[in-house]
Amino acid sequence: MTKHQNKPKFRWHIVIFLAPAVLVYSAIMIFPLFATLRLALFTEIDQERVFVGLQNFRALFGDAVWSDQFWNALGNNFWFFVIHMLVQNPIGIALAAILSHPRLRYAAFYRSAIFIPTILSFVIVGFAWKLILSPIWGIAPGMLDAVGLKSLYAPWLGKQEYALTTLSLVSVWQFVGIPMMLIYAALLSIPDEILEAAEVEGITGMSAFWKIKLPLILPSIGIISILTFVANFNAFDLIYAAQGALAGPDFSTDILGTFMYRTFFGFQLQLGDPHMGSAIASAMFAIILIGVCIYLFGIQSRMRRYQF
Amino acid sequence: MSIARQNRLNTYAAHGVLILYTLIALFPVFVIIINSFKTRRAIFREPLAMPNSETFSLIGYETVLNQGDFFLYFQNSMIVTVASLFFILLFGAMAAFALAEYRFKGNLMMGLYLALGIMIPIRIGTVAILELMVQTGLVNTLWALILVYTAQGLPLAVFILSEFMRQVSDDLKNAGRIDGLSEYRIFFRLVLPLVRPAMATVAVFNMIPIWNDLWFPLILAPAEEVKTLTLGSQVFIGQFVTDWNAVLSALSLAILPVMALYVIFSRQLIRGITSGAVK
């Protein structure tokens, strides 16, 4: 490298190596991101783009026509996230803890099989569960009947009070493989000496997990939480595939992604409004940014890391 | 003895839990596939039974193959995925090499700038991306999707690949320089072959999200001749909701290519995740 520093010549090859990636990334990702934030400050009057400042946001947060839908979508989105944190991540951690047991046979098979739902598209997952839970087909009621719980069955996806939770659980079913894999990797990276030292002290089994392994994998749990947060507040496909753009029944499964899609593109009688769509996108951006900042400055920097 | 017995009990419990969860994970896929080979009556009468000579039927697949242009959709998905991966790997590796190899003003800033996109989803900019594609006439072309997926994949690719490129020995590169190789040759001939495992990891990470994406095909390329398989099956299923044979067959056909990819690449994928490439 020193050889290059002696040369006064401009090193064109650096520019050539960087240019394609920087150009594509700036043009398709960064520029549209800021252009979208900017579009949120405009509106269309008589087919002309007019600057209106924060008026779109005022409407989005305060004008009942928009704000009812917005707060509904935001609230639903939070519930969606809460279910993932409470169900997906603990199940993922538990599966990883079992899988990482050193003498467990067939671990590779279980790992690959449990990861399969994660690779399927939302369209497949959405429709498959829609069919399975459907009262017409009768698989779900039939199976509940077999264990004597038929009375518990309800057309979950069609009921306002259950639909969102059901879809969240479907999403959990689909993505449990990701926390499982990441935690599994973290658990494997714990050196044997530490676990052996604990064993000598008489800490084994469950207490070894709670007292030794869990504190060591906290950074990975932090990463999983922020990945879940970003993915959830950016979700769209599953709800769209299963319930359509209207996120029925009666908007009970509407989340920010579907709300933005509907607003931006329009549906049925409502015309699409790119400026309101941008305002919603900006709100999503702000939420994701706040989440990432809380993680980076509030959680990650305070977490104790251990070097092995 | 009691410890040994307890250990065995624990092992049984572990297998029990894992088998139960494996069943939960595979059950829906299994139900969809077996029922796609049955007659309409059998689908409803005994949804959990395997197809037998009496109930076997390919009527759903006939409908799908006659009505939907699944070969075209498949081809579109293939082109988009392969082209995007090619550009992500080529451009990503080039940028990663520049960041890992040379010391220059703004190196750190450039690295941070490119890393921004790891956490910020590209979907936030959709409104302006659509405007851009309309202005450049790329709407309803596969290029629109390829460009978007390339931009989406680059940040993580640069991040992972530059980590790996820092580990390539300096002696090797300097030996190349003394032999008069240009910087481009050093990159393509010496460094790229050495980071092939990392390239494979990046490719596998990007492949499945690109193949499965519904959002951008729906917005940027909804026209019939550029539909991807994911969007194509979504639209097809939406139209045939009441034709259960066709819906189940379409779902099975959509599962097939991803499963094939998974079987081929699962070792690479799992190795990639567990080697800590995403940390």
UniProtKB/TrEMBL annotation, chain A:
<feature type="domain" description="ABC transmembrane type-1">
    <location>
        <begin position="74"/>
        <end position="297"/>
    </location>
</feature>
<comment type="similarity">
    <text>Belongs to the binding-protein-dependent transport system permease family.</text>
</comment>
<keyword id="KW-1133">Transmembrane helix</keyword>
<keyword id="KW-0812">Transmembrane</keyword>
<dbReference type="InterPro" id="IPR051393">
    <property type="entry name" value="ABC_transporter_permease"/>
</dbReference>
<keyword id="KW-0813">Transport</keyword>
<feature type="transmembrane region" description="Helical">
    <location>
        <begin position="112"/>
        <end position="132"/>
    </location>
</feature>
<dbReference type="InterPro" id="IPR035906">
    <property type="entry name" value="MetI-like_sf"/>
</dbReference>
<feature type="transmembrane region" description="Helical">
    <location>
        <begin position="216"/>
        <end position="236"/>
    </location>
</feature>
<dbReference type="InterPro" id="IPR000515">
    <property type="entry name" value="MetI-like"/>
</dbReference>
<dbReference type="GO" id="GO:0005886">
    <property type="term" value="C:plasma membrane"/>
</dbReference>
<dbReference type="Pfam" id="PF00528">
    <property type="entry name" value="BPD_transp_1"/>
</dbReference>
<protein>
    <submittedName>
        <fullName>Lactose transport system permease protein LacF</fullName>
    </submittedName>
</protein>
<dbReference type="GO" id="GO:0055085">
    <property type="term" value="P:transmembrane transport"/>
</dbReference>
<keyword id="KW-0472">Membrane</keyword>
<keyword id="KW-1003">Cell membrane</keyword>
<feature type="transmembrane region" description="Helical">
    <location>
        <begin position="78"/>
        <end position="100"/>
    </location>
</feature>
<feature type="transmembrane region" description="Helical">
    <location>
        <begin position="162"/>
        <end position="187"/>
    </location>
</feature>
<feature type="transmembrane region" description="Helical">
    <location>
        <begin position="12"/>
        <end position="34"/>
    </location>
</feature>
<feature type="transmembrane region" description="Helical">
    <location>
        <begin position="279"/>
        <end position="298"/>
    </location>
</feature>
TrEMBL record, chain B:
<feature type="domain" description="ABC transmembrane type-1">
    <location>
        <begin position="74"/>
        <end position="265"/>
    </location>
</feature>
<feature type="transmembrane region" description="Helical">
    <location>
        <begin position="186"/>
        <end position="208"/>
    </location>
</feature>
<keyword id="KW-0472">Membrane</keyword>
<comment type="similarity">
    <text>Belongs to the binding-protein-dependent transport system permease family.</text>
</comment>
<dbReference type="GO" id="GO:0055085">
    <property type="term" value="P:transmembrane transport"/>
</dbReference>
<feature type="transmembrane region" description="Helical">
    <location>
        <begin position="246"/>
        <end position="265"/>
    </location>
</feature>
<dbReference type="InterPro" id="IPR000515">
    <property type="entry name" value="MetI-like"/>
</dbReference>
<dbReference type="GO" id="GO:0005886">
    <property type="term" value="C:plasma membrane"/>
</dbReference>
<feature type="transmembrane region" description="Helical">
    <location>
        <begin position="142"/>
        <end position="165"/>
    </location>
</feature>
<feature type="transmembrane region" description="Helical">
    <location>
        <begin position="78"/>
        <end position="100"/>
    </location>
</feature>
<dbReference type="InterPro" id="IPR035906">
    <property type="entry name" value="MetI-like_sf"/>
</dbReference>
<keyword id="KW-1133">Transmembrane helix</keyword>
<keyword id="KW-1003">Cell membrane</keyword>
<keyword id="KW-0813">Transport</keyword>
<keyword id="KW-0812">Transmembrane</keyword>
<feature type="transmembrane region" description="Helical">
    <location>
        <begin position="112"/>
        <end position="130"/>
    </location>
</feature>
<protein>
    <submittedName>
        <fullName>L-arabinose transport system permease protein AraQ</fullName>
    </submittedName>
</protein>
<feature type="transmembrane region" description="Helical">
    <location>
        <begin position="12"/>
        <end position="34"/>
    </location>
</feature>
<dbReference type="Pfam" id="PF00528">
    <property type="entry name" value="BPD_transp_1"/>
</dbReference>
